[in-house]
Task: structure prediction
Amino acid sequence: MQLPPQLRPAAADRQTSLAIRAWNVMGGLDWAALPVVSEMFGISDIDIFVHQLTAIRDWQKDSE
Result:
């Protein structure tokens, strides 16, 4: 999987890996599932988490 440019420098970062896994679990950016998934993966910084998810979303839109 090729990562969006916004996420490439931090590819080895644990939080980025969790954001990608969460994206896959939710099937995209699902606002209703966000609290449950963030709790499930132990995400503590929701602002960064949402930023990463929107970067994935925007990158997918651009690549279509």
